[in-house]
Every structure is written in structure tokens, then in C-alpha cells.
Amino acid sequence: MKRKERRTAGRAAREGFTLIEILLVVVIIGILVGIAVPRFTGRVEQSRVAAAESTLKSISTALDLYELDMGRYPDDLEALEKQPEGADNWRGPYLKSGIPEDPWGQEYVYKHPGTHNPHGYDLHSLGPQGGEPITNWE
């Protein structure tokens, strides 16, 4: 009977993973995560930039519609949402869902007349932290 117990105890010891094997698996998983995360975060940032560019175009279209109705560009972006005083030709709101924030939670910056577009307007997002701004000028 003692012999049978020894065999069972020996088999149980051989069936589990050693600490070295577990550490090796953890290291491999860490390496894979270290490779995958930077690639994923790069794609997220690229999609945010694309979303900001798309929103910039939508706001630009709304500004151009305002200019067609009013004969000039607005002093601020709020005029796309709420009728300014004395604006009898206003046919807004020109943005259906209000004035959006950029994908980084900041307001879009609008300036009329523009520094880069003196006969029009400058519109830009500050972009990702430490990155280039996304603009309506080249």
C-alpha cells in the first residue's frame, strides 16, 4: 500500500507547472503585450487625427453655408448654432449636433479674418499633445 501512495504523490508532483515554466510564460506574454500595445495606440491616434480632419471639414462647410446666407463669415462658432442679433438672413442652425470638441477634448480654434487665410478664416484643432495641429490651411 505504501508503494501505491508514493506513485500517486510522485505523479502529482510531475503534473504541475514549475515556477520557472510559469515565469517563462509570463515573460512571453509581457513581450507580446509590449509589441502589440504601441501598434494599437498608434492606430488609435491615427483614427483621432482622421476624425479631427473630418470634423474640421464639417465645420468648414457650415461656415461656408453661413457665409452664403449672411454675406460674411461669423465672428465666432456660436453663430453657427444660435442666431446672432440682427442676423435676419440666418437660416441655421448650421451644425446639427452643436459645436463639437476635437477628439482630445479641446475646442476647435476659429479666427476670422484668418492669419493664414486673410480673406476667409483659420480653423484648427490643437491636435494630439506634443503633435502637429490639424488645420484648414497648408
TrEMBL record:
This is Type II secretion system core protein G. The chain crosses the membrane at residues 12-37. It is found in: Cell inner membrane. Residues 40-131 form the Type II secretion system protein GspG C-terminal domain. Gene3D superfamilies: Glycoprotein, Type 4 Pilin. One of its GO terms (cellular component) is plasma membrane. It holds the Pfam family T2SSG. PROSITE patterns: PROKAR_NTER_METHYL (PS00409). InterPro entries: Bac_GSPG_pilin, N_methyl_site, Pilin-like, T2SS_protein-GspG_C, Type2_sec_GspG. Belongs to the GSP G family. SUPFAM superfamilies: Pili subunits. Its main location: membrane.
